[in-house]
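As the next step, I wrote out a protein sequence along with its fold in token form, included below for the reader:
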Amino acid sequence: MRHAVSLAVVLCLAVGSLSAATLLPMSDAELLGRSRLVVVGTVVDSVAREAAGRDIYTDTRLRIEEIVKGQISTDTVTVTEFGGLANGHGIAVPGSASYQPGTRVLAFLRQRDDGTYFTASMSLGKYRFTQRDGIELLVRDADGVEVDDANAFAARPAGEFVQYMRDGAPATARVPM
């Protein structure tokens, strides 16, 4: 019990001292170009684990509905982000992409040399599908992120935006907003 209280106090102090990450949003074409794999999928689960040196990573499995860009031979992809809470300690990374089980997402992924995937441009490389007034939209999560262009968080019409990405985000096309 004492360890749980100590952990809670440490986490509260850590959260209180964290600042937001200031990110420079890139254009849609740049985000697409920097991504090796772009998928529409549903978050199956997210599990934090402790690696060597007490580093914490969170592994998120996405069940792939559609591959917008790239190739993968399975129907799931694991996205590994630095940070999380495991074995009684945690690491918070402001601006890091986080995934909630059951959520449908459009994820722009990069690949490390070891073959694992991570979200391109941190949380700006993940859109969440949502409904507003009967319209399916894509939105970015702004928690822990500061940008110099508020349009980075503008909702986008889901069908049009995914098609725009399938088409390669052409410079001559109107960006769906």
Helices lie at 2-17, 28-34, 158-166. The CA atoms of residues 32 and 108 lie 7 Å apart.
